[in-house]
C-alpha cells in the first residue's frame, strides 16, 4: 500500500510511464499495441507496465495469448486524492495569508 500517493507519484515521474497511462485512458491495450505508439521497445513497455502495476496504477488480465492492461481506478483515485489534498491545503494557506494581509494596517 502506498503512503500518501508516493508510490504512484514516483511511478508517474517517468515520461514513458505517463505516456502509457495516457494511452490506457482510451481503454485496455496489449503491450504490442502500446509499443507501436511509443518511441520505446516492447520490452521497455513491459518494464514500465510492471512498475505501474506494482504502484497500483494499472491492472492486467489474460485474453487468449495476450495480456491486456487497463488503468486501475483505485490507484488513479489515490493519486487524485493526494493531489486534491495538496491543492486544498495550498488554497487554505493562500486564503489565510490573504486574510492576514487584509487585516494588517497600511
TrEMBL record:
The lineage of its organism: Bacteria, Bacillati, Actinomycetota, Actinomycetes, Pseudonocardiales. SMART domains: HTH_ARSR. GO terms for molecular function: DNA binding; DNA-binding transcription factor activity. SUPFAM superfamilies: Winged helix' DNA-binding domain. The keyword Lipid biosynthesis does not apply. Residues 1-98 form the HTH arsR-type domain. Keywords: DNA-binding, Transcription, Transcription regulation. This is Transcriptional regulator. CDD domains: HTH_ARSR (cd00090). InterPro entries: ArsR-like_HTH (IPR011991), HTH_ArsR_DNA-bd_dom (IPR001845), HTH_MetalResp_TranReg (IPR051081), WH-like_DNA-bd_sf (IPR036388), WH_DNA-bd_sf (IPR036390).
Amino acid at each position: 500500500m502506498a503512503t500518501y500517493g508516493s508510490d504512484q507519484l514516483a511511478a508517474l515521474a517517468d515520461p514513458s510511464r505517463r505516456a502509457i497511462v495516457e494511452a490506457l485512458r482510451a481503454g485496455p491495450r496489449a503491450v504490442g499495441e502500446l509499443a507501436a505508439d511509443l518511441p520505446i521497445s516492447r520490452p521497455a513497455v513491459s518494464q514500465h507496465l510492471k512498475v505501474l502495476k506494482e504502484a497500483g496504477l494499472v491492472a492486467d488480465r489474460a485474453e487468449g495469448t495476450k495480456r491486456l492492461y487497463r488503468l486501475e481506478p483505485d490507484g488513479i483515485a489515490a493519486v487524485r486524492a493526494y493531489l486534491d489534498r495538496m491543492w486544498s491545503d495550498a488554497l487554505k494557506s493562500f486564503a489565510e495569508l490573504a486574510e492576514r494581509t487584509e487585516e494588517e494596517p497600511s
